[in-house]
Amino acid sequence: MEIESALMKPLKNAVETDNLRKVFEIKQGLLRRNAKSVVAVEGISLTVPAGQSVAFIGPNGAGKSTTIKMLTGILKPSSGTASVLGLDPWKQRSKLVRQIGAVFGQRSQLWLHLPPSDSFDLLAEIYGIPKNDYRKRKALLVERFDLGRFLSTPVRKLSLGERMRAEIAASLLHRPQLLLLDEPTIGVDVIARQNLRDLVCEWNREEGVTVFLTSHDTGDIESVADRVIVINHGRVVLDDSLSSVSENTLIEGKTAGLEEIIAHLFNSAASLPMQNCISPG
Amino acid sequence: MKNSIRQIWAVARVAARSNLAYLGEVASRTFFLAVILFIFLKLWQATYRESASAVIGGLSLNQMLWYLTVTEAIYMSAPRLAQQIDEDVRSGALAVRLLKPISYPLYCLSSALGERIVRFLANFATGAAVTFCLVGPFNCSPAAPIMLLVAVLLAFVLDGLGHLIIGLWAFWLEDTSGLLLIYTRLSMILGGMLIPMELFPDWLKSFVFFLPFPYLVWGPAHLFVHSDWLQFAQLVGLQSLYILLLLAVVNLIYGWALERISAHGG
Amino acid sequence: MWFSKILSYLRLARAYIKLNWSMQMEYRGAFVSQALAMFLNNGTWLAFWMLFFSRFPVVKGWEQSDVVTLWAISAAGFGLGNAFCWNLHNLAAMVSRGELDVWMLYPRALIPHLALGKMSATAIGDLAFGYFIYIVVVRPDLQHFLLFNLLVVAVALVFIGFNLWRGSLAFYFGQAEVLSEQWFFAMITFSTYPNCLFDGWMKVVLYTLIPAGFISGLPVEALRDFDFSAAAFTWLGALGVLASGAASFELGLRRYQSGNLLGMRS
Question: In the predicted model, what is the mean pLDDT of residues B199-219?
Answer without folding.
Answer: 92
